[in-house]
Amino acid sequence: MGVTPEQVKSWARDYDSHTPQAILECALAHCDNIALSFSGAEDVVLVDMLCKLSKKPNIFSLDTGRLHPETYQFLDTVRKHYGISLHLVSPDTQQLEAFTQQKGLFSFYEDGHKECCTVRKVAPLKRKLSTLSAWITGQRKDQSDDTRAQLAVAEVDSVFTGVEGGQLVKFNPLANWSSAQVWQYIRDNNVPFNPLHQKGFISIGCEPCTRPVLPNQHEREGRWWWEQADKKECGLHAGNIAPEQPKTVVFHVNYPVYNALI
Ligand code: SF4
């Protein structure tokens, strides 16, 4: 029998003060068809934890085609360090070619990041998640007061669906951890980390949309800095954003995924 929404709610409540490892154990115990989404940043702590809990961890990364060279190098470092088979999920070629032919390579600076993120991140993620019943993310509450403050350690995904359009459970084991705790874990366990962190980057995404931040600047200020703070989700966790009702209608018929993004 599958996991019920009530079970997920009870995990969110019961595991809220548990360690990330205990949350991962709960996820692995109840969900067979589960994978970790690894961004190539400090969420590498989850790769480390998962590899200590599972002999065959299922881990994937979204290869947008626009990541920093350092991040590509780091993904390969992680693959070799842990001896894992890291699934790099790429955008659909036809969709990407149509988009870049029409809009070029930097349209996000002119009309926002949503369209490019949809092609390069959201659509590939949607395809990957349609093969799963649960996924694990590295989201934390302290990454954004605007969009992640209410994050639960377990939830039914309100944006994406799993196998055959069925329920998809989402685990956020680091929800209650601070950046300081993540970095303490990295140091204590000799976990490899992305060299961009040594160049002032805190949050790491695509190269054209990520920049280093100054001391005491919030990490999200280094992402899509030309856009409004409460809209800074790339669509992977669009359920964190309260939708603006009037704008959803236009794209809904032909591009259902846009409904989650605008
Ligand atoms: S983060 Fe920037 S480059 Fe990457 S998919 Fe989104 S808009 Fe495109």
Tell me briefly what this model is:
This protein has 262 residues and is an alpha/beta fold.
SSE topology:
Layout lengths: L4 H10 L5 H11 L3 E4 L6 H10 L5 E4 L6 H14 L3 E4 L3 H11 L4 H4 L2 H16 L4 E3 L17 E3 L12 E3 L7 H10 L60 H4 L10
Parallel strand pairs: 1-2, 1-4, 2-3, 4-6
Antiparallel strand pairs: 5-6
Helix pairs in contact: 2-3
The protein binds iron/sulfur cluster.
The site of iron/sulfur cluster has 13 residues, from helix 7.
Describe the protein in words.
The protein is of the alpha/beta class. It has a single domain, classed as HUPs (Rossmann fold). 34% of the residues lie in helices and 8% in strands. The chain is built from nine helices and six strands, in the order ααβαβαβαααβββαα. It has helices at 5-14, 20-30, 44-53, 69-82, 93-103, 108-111, 114-129, 179-188, 249-252; strands spanning 34-37, 59-62, 86-89, 134-136, 154-156, 169-171. The protein has a six-stranded mixed β-sheet, sandwiched between helices. α2 (20-30) packs across α3. The longest helix has 16 residues, at 114-129. The protein is globular, with a radius of gyration of 18 Å. Mean pLDDT is 88; it is low at 245-262. The site of iron/sulfur cluster has 13 residues, from α7.
Instruction: Give Rg in angstroms.
Output: 18 Å
Per CATH, the architecture is 3-Layer(aba) Sandwich
Q: Provide the CATH superfamily.
A: HUPs
The overall pLDDT, averaged over residues, is: 88
State the share of residues found in helices, binned by percent: 25-40%
Low-confidence stretches: 245-262
Q: Termini, distance in Å?
A: 35 Å
Rough outline: globular
Largest sheet geometry: 6 strands, mixed
Helix-strand category:
alpha/beta
List ligands, each type once. Answer: iron/sulfur cluster
Order of helices and strands: HHEHEHEHHHEEEHH
- What is the fold named in CATH at topology level? Rossmann fold
The figure for the number of domains is 1
Total DSSP helices: 9
